[in-house]
Model the fold of this input.
Amino acid sequence: MIITGLVLGIALGIVMQRGRFCVTGMLRDISLAHTWRPFTALLIVIAIHAVGIAGLTAAGIIQPEYDPFAPYAVIVGGFLFGIGIVLAGGCASGTWYRSGEGLVGSWFALLFYGLSAAAMKTGALSGLNSWLRDRTVNLTTIHGSLGMSVWWLAIPFAALAAGLAVYFLRTDSTPASLQAGWKKPLHLYVAAVLVGLLGIIAWPLSAATGRNDGLGITSPTANLINFLVTGESTRVDWGVMLVLGILVGSFIAAKVTGEFRVRVPDATQTVKSIAGGTLMGVGAAWAGGCTVGNGMVQTGLFTYQGWVALAAIAAGVFVATKIWLHPRPTSVPEAEQVPFESFNLNAPVLGSSAVAVATSTGLREVAPAVFALDTLGSVCPFPLIDAKEAMNELDSGESLRIDFDCTQATESIPRWAADEGFEVTDFHEVGDAGWQITVGK
Done:
């Protein structure tokens, strides 16, 4: 029954929303925050998938099938997908669950992701898709090429993921936490374990309906668009119910915890969301999957497609991060400095320099030695990027008060403060899906 896809999708949406599970952030933080801690969560998912899928296959419960490896399509598609998820502010599954949180930018990204994926798979761009996808080589799985059992890869990989998780847990700083009890977000590694387990359960449930696959986002999203356009009920399969379930589960989790609010992006972010969603659809179609289908499932099967796609996606994320997400220099060249006499002497002035400098952070002094930064409406990771940039302008003993409405920033900003040794003096909710945190330098 395809209804099991909806049930599992709801569970997955809840876990992802409560765990702030974002593969885009995991890859992005390698270069942006210089840490492999979030990426380890993805390795945990892959490890659980690898062991679980190998076990189900050995027991004869499932029989995974492997697509021919199309290296050019996978590399180009993965790279484009990586750029797209940075522009859109989330990967395929992240876009679905953030849509459930009320982010209108994610709605735009999701729509154009589905449209472009459908166009590539069954529509006007199917010829372009086939042109690159048909250029295949005689390679499928890594263990098959090496002539060994998959267990020789699955067990060591699981040990590696477990070792990294233990290391980061032992060396982890303790960030300030806003919520307690059942409202408290899941630890990222706990969420990773749950995503991995749900991914294993997905295989027999999906196979029972004739869909011989596990978790997947791109084809189900394209099928949903095709169904809405053509009315062909055959398009509605277990995978379509899965992605709809992610949306429903995320909405339930966000609504119950007070993290749902319709948030409309500005024009610039809207354009980025549309462009990002389009690149995601084209890229995922060429690559044969997204960060779920390739980055979690195919990697767990140890296929060449999965691991090459993940590397290509990471490369795209790295390039896009370098171009769009790194903080701008906070200092202003001497030629652009404005004489102090031209400023309103009654206005609050940041710092004690004899020359007033026009800053890009929009800081204003709201109390003695307390400066406010408004990032409302900014999608992650921009609240954190702006906070880092603003903190660089403060003197020791001054504080930064940050207003934000990005759910993921409830974890990333306190963790940044803890890692840097900054004191969080206040952290509270401001209405639905709004927060304010004060960090002392």
